[in-house]
Each structure stands twice: as structure tokens, then as C-alpha cells.
Amino acid sequence: MQDASGIVHIVDDIPELDGHTGDLVLVHTLEGFLDAGSAARLVAGALLGELEDGDEPPPGGDEAAVGAGRDQQAAPDGRVVASFDIDQLYDYRARRPPLLFIEDHYEHYQAPRLVVRLQHDRRGRPYLVLTGPEPDIAWERFIEGVRAVIDRLGVTLTIGLGGVPMAVPHTRRITYTMHATRPEILPEHRSMFKAQLRIPGSAQAILEVRLGEWGYDAAGLVAHVPHYLAQVDFPAAAVALVNGVRSLAELDVSTDELERAAEQAMTQITQQIGDNEEIAEVVRALEGQYDAFERAADASLLAEGTELPTGEELGAEFERFLAGLDRPDDRP
After folding, report:
1. Cβ(182)–Cβ(217) under 8 Å?
2. Three-state DSSP class for 187?
3. In the CATH scheme, what is the code of domain 8-325?
4. How far apart are CA 140 and CA 137, in angstroms?
5. Are strands 126-133 and 25-31 parallel, antiparallel or unpaired?
6. Is the Cβ–Cβ distance between 84 and 142 less than 8 Å?
7. How does pLDDT run across 223-248, given as a tens digit for each residue?
8. What is the Cα–Cα distance from 148 to 207, expressed in whole angstroms?
9. Domain limits of the chain?
10. Is residue 44 within a helix (H) or strand (E), and if so which, with residue range?
11. Fewer beta carbons below 10 Å: N end or C end of the chain?
12. Dist CA 218 CA 157 (whole Å)
């Protein structure tokens, strides 16, 4: 079935949903703007069964290397129940899809896809996962397409996931910001922000705005990724997001593989930081700020009066650090 906007095709016959009378959740994890630490991509891999036992997420960095790494992952589980016309949404020149050139020919073209898959949690409960690149253009038409999926498949709650860089240390509990179209949707939580923020728009955020205007229930979780790790894979953020989905929607989704990847990443990060006292000093400063926030109920990580290094000051030190994490001979 083609929706009215002509931007999404929805499967007409989905026997797996016949007779389903419970809540149906749609989780969307779009790669692009809200993907610090590759949190959205790693969560998508966990929800779609792309990380098998013993696998590790591919390292961040070069697009071709990332594409090649994804080739080695397991194919995603779950039946495709809706697919968006990517040619109407994607700017190929801004984000060129990777492919390989081997001696005298091209192969392994990684065509971008924006699809909705039907999954089941460990208790057999169905849920939907929308994954792919964040649309570059036609956001309102994309949102109309998502609305068509919601109406056609009977979605009762939409949850967006992502990651943003924050002045937090990797050595403390990874937290996230929760938001929703109605406060009643959210479990009891503590916001790390006590001020009004003007932020750049994203397809995910505007989707939540529009769904709220139309009377649909929608929520979102954004993991707080240490800003010095924003450009590399940070599985701990993905673990936090999956746990957040559990609290919002009571989905029984495994985090075993993500937790193993997070432990390996933490070991490597600790080793790298141990080799540079200046970096370690910055991390200790962030730890002090974080601990002060935890002790003060009314505190905010954006509180005035806290002196932290500027982005320029951090950049020179962390450039070598990130380069070390991204060495091709290292395990991710």
C-alpha cells in the first residue's frame, strides 16, 4: 500500500500482527545528527539482531571501512513491513554511500535504506524498528509517511533514540534525557537540564513535535555521550538507551552483546587515558562536575560558575587520543 504522500510503501498483509490487541511500539533510530558515539546505530544493531555472539560493532571513522565492517555483521532480523522512497529523502552528494573498488571493478555498494522492520522481544511481544539515515530533505513528507505507518499498523507509542555530546566523563553512569508529548508517558526521572535551550532541529525532534500536535503518544531518549568520545563507537551509551526503552515500553530486549562490547571499549579507553596525564586531568575535572551534580538535587550540568576547558583547549589533547582509538590494527 502506497501512502497518500507517496513516500512510503506499507505491506498490506502482516499476519504476525493479526489479532494483536496489546500496545505496539515503534522505535526509530536514525543515523546522522543525533548519533554521537554511534549510539543510534549500535542500538539499531541490538534491536535488529545484527550483533551475534562474539561480534563487535565496527569502529567509527572512514566511510568505506565502516561499510566493509557492516558487511561482516549478521543480516538484520525482522520482516520489512514498510519502506521509504530513499531517493526522495537522501542527498547522495552530501553523504556518499560507500562501495569497494577491487583491482578493476566496483562491488559491495551499500545503498542507503530507510525501512521499518517487525521484531519480537524475548517474550514474543511484537514491536517495530525504523532505521536508516536521517532524511536530508522533505522532512514534513517523511513525517507524514511515518504517520501513515502508525495509522496502518496500529502503533500506540513512538520512541526516538539518539546520542548527543556532553561534558560528562566516561567513568560515571551513562545517563540520558527523556522527553515526550505528554508528561504522563514518562517514568519518574531527573532532568539534567534546568534551562530553556535553543537547539538545531532534526527529523526525529520534529517528528515528535508533529505527533504531539496530532494527538499521538511519542517519547524520546537521548544518551549523554562524553564529548571526547563522540566520534567513535561508545557502546555504553547504547546500553543506556536500551535500558531506557525497557523503562518506557517494557520491551524485553537483550543487551548482553552491547555490554560485552562496552566492557572492551572501556578497557581500551582506560589504557589510552593512562598514557596521557593531561587527558586524565581533564577527565578528573569532568568527574568532579558530575559528582557535584549528583549530590545537588537542583544542579544542572549547564550550571554557571563551573570552569571547564573550552572545546579548542580539549581538541589538541583529544585529537591524539581519538587517533589512537581509531588505529586500524586495534580491536574496536
Report:
1. yes
2. coil
3. 3.40.50.10900
4. 9
5. parallel
6. yes
7. 999 988 888 899 999 999 999 999 89
8. 13
9. 8-325
10. helix 39-47
11. N
12. 5
Nearest Cα neighbor of 227 from 17, 10, 36 is: 36
Length of the chain: 332
Name the residue type at position 44. Answer: A
Question: Rg of the chain over CA atoms, in angstroms?
Answer: 20
Burial class (CB in 10 A: 0-12, 13-18, 19+), 199: exposed
Q: Which residues contact 29 (CB under 8 A, 6 or more apart)?
A: 40, 41, 43, 44, 47, 129, 130, 131, 160, 161, 162
pLDDT band at 150 (very low <50, low <70, confident <90, very high): very high
Taking alpha carbons only, the member of 166, 167, 199, 198 closest to residue 289 is 167
Strand ranges (E), 35-148:
79-84, 100-102, 105-107, 115-120, 126-133
Taking the CA atoms of residue 226, residue 232, residue 237 and residue 238 in that order, the dihedral angle to the nearest 10 degrees is 170
Among 198, 196, 131, 128, CA closest to 162? 131
DSSP helix/strand/coil, 111: coil
Look at the block and give the residue holding cell 517523511: 142
The answer to whether 40 and 29 are in contact (CB under 8 A) is yes
Digit-coded pLDDT (tens) for 189-224: 666 666 677 888 999 999 999 999 999 999 999 999
Map residue 294 onto helix, strand or coil: helix
| Set of cell numbers at residue 285 | 575535572
| Upper half-sphere CA count for residue 196 (Cβ side, 13 Å) | 0
pTM of the model: 0.79
Beta bridge partners of 177: 222
